[in-house]
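Records of this kind hold a single protein each, on a pair of labelled lines. With that in mind, the following record should read easily:
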Amino acid sequence: MNFSVDIVYLWSSSSETRLRLWQEYVAKENSTEITEHRENFSLSRISENDEIRYALRSIFKNMNWIRNVYIISADEYPQWLNLSNPRVKLVNTSDIIDRQYLPVFNSNLIEGNVYKIKGLSEQFLMSCDDLLVMLPTDRDFFFDEYNRPIYRIKQSTSKKRSPYLLHVDFCNQMAYLATGKDWPTRIATYHGIQPHSLKSITKTVTNSFLTPYYKLMQSHRFRKITDMNHLLFALVGESRGEYWVKMSEIHEYIKSKEGTWFKNPNWLGDIRMIIETDIHWYNKINGVRQIGVQSYDGDKITGLEVYREIQRHFMNKWFPEKSEFEI
């Protein structure tokens, strides 16, 4: 495997300007939508705690074969970022999304347009800014011997009707309509670093009979159930032989303060570390390969700073040394 692989990060600034825009556009949303799917409108979605600094440190340490790091943001970027490093590439949302649809807070819409990034490698990885790579990881974790992306999924058995699971159902139904392949009920992905070759797949999907759904999604400033996302693109890619969609045993484990691991039977597919009363939530893949860190307290703001301080402590403990991506 000697092909180039880039990684694309979605980064959200929690500046006063971004917060003001968030509040302004949330106020314009339908109140029923907010009541039924409040997690899509939680302020935690735009809060940031310097996670991307440690995400890049983890890439530098454990995946330094990555060619370029692309960071998508809206007119802002971390002040500590080393912009003189040729491996660091900034992408403004206006570079890939028409200005009439900005500002956008919908990660599904942004992900669906990353194939427009100039210079992006055909095979690339997508990541949120709060995902850390904990172990040395080579290309063969993400790509098979035919250079196809290995897209990891699992079958969700949950009966809940959360926005996330309703969205999963929508993508499953659209994938069936697009390919004729009847996947098992409720194929879900996990919130981790996933490989993509969306340049070709996205064009195929968005220029098919699914075009009306894609055009509808462009007006979604916030996540909606009827968004198309990477799960749909991967399932379509699998039907064309361009992806290896792999059913994986992906479980969440809880690690106590004393270091005891035990399985969390209620995991629905998210990968995050919520720190509460000294218990840490981890996602365990071939050992603790990836950890999602997130200062998350539901819709609450009270007490959030306590979470953030503990989060900073662990991130700095895991990755204390600067990377070449920092000034």
Remarks:
- The first strand starts at residue 6 and ends at 10.
